[in-house]
Amino acid sequence: MNLDSKRWRGCAWLRALAFQWHKSRGFPASNFQRPYSRDWEELLQAGNLISAESRAESFREAKELEAAGLVELKTVRYRPYQIERIVIPFAAESRLRELFVGELPAPPDPRFDFASVKWASPLAFLTNESVSVAPDDLLQMNQFLLQEPRNQAVVPIKERSLEIFGDEKRLDALVSTSLFRAGRLDWVRDLKCEIIGEPLAWKRGPVEAAGKPLLVIENAATWHSYCRWNEECKLFSAVVYGCGNRFVDGFHFLPDIFRELGGLRRILYFGDLDQRGLEIPQEAAGKAQILGSISVEPHLWSYRQLLKLGAGHGQPYDGDRASPQLCDWLGECAEPVRQLFSAGQRLAQEHVGWEFLSNRHGRD
After folding, report:
1. Fewest Cβ atoms closer than 10 Å to its Cβ: which of 63, 318, 319, 348?
2. 0.70 exceeded by pTM
3. Across-strand partners of 86?
4. Could you tell me if 207 and 348 lie in one domain?
5. Is a pLDDT exceeding 80 seen at residue 51?
6. DSSP alpha helices (H): ranges in the chain?
């Protein structure tokens, strides 16, 4: 499909995407293992597309460009109307470059001599090896490393990025490049920074539940219903919104919640019955050593109710099939879930909704 270059060159979010891509990896000599992608919300903000009207128009534009093969859209699971990330396929890079020809910055000088630079020790490998990163970025990073920042405190990656590049998002774009391949640069060890996950939203339970377990819920609607229910049933010291995949990255915020609650609690989890719904709590459990002997356990009562209420209402699932071993985490519920998956189906946790919970003053 031919694109109207005048129209699309004036598209604010596409311009932002193109220039960010080009700065990160858009030069023809670049060689990456994964296509470039950006968070959709951040992209809209970069284009100052805040109003409901402009966001709706941007969604329509994104769908049109997806149909044209210029981008791919990663939507929120089972919410095709909500874009999570936008991807530039490798095959579309030349078309994007051609669309903005004459506007994108010139590629780096191919005569740049990596061996001529006095590299800081973490970048010493560049004397004999090259990477697909703009020389200006490398030189700015080298200048920072030459100051021997090893005694600096570890700070969020966006703060360090702003210090080094004057751009708080630049390091986020670079961490997926070969510069940070195993055995090369390490952002914690060398740059003294860390990737910070989204904070975990949570609601404290009633006073009567102060010493009881903490419950993590995968999705927002079910989290809201369980918070309401907990006011009546008083089963949980707090109900945490896991926000899908964000629970894994935000797991290190749990100690802060425990301090607010007055000490460690059992961590119970309830999510969708599909592959990712089971992977999330088990990946988070791999980080549980920061809390000592605490693990992430399934809230079996909720899973039992989901299997009962969802019987005969499973949704077709064409995603990756969960391995039988992944289901072992569910204990007594493992076998019926294996059967569900074998039938090519999944169950959304929203089956255990407020209408059901409001008639349960305690667990059955």
Report:
1. 318
2. no
3. 38, 73
4. yes
5. no
6. 5-9, 12-25, 40-46, 52-67, 93-99, 135-145, 157-165, 170-174, 220-233, 246-249, 254-261, 275-285, 300-309, 324-327, 334-342, 354-357
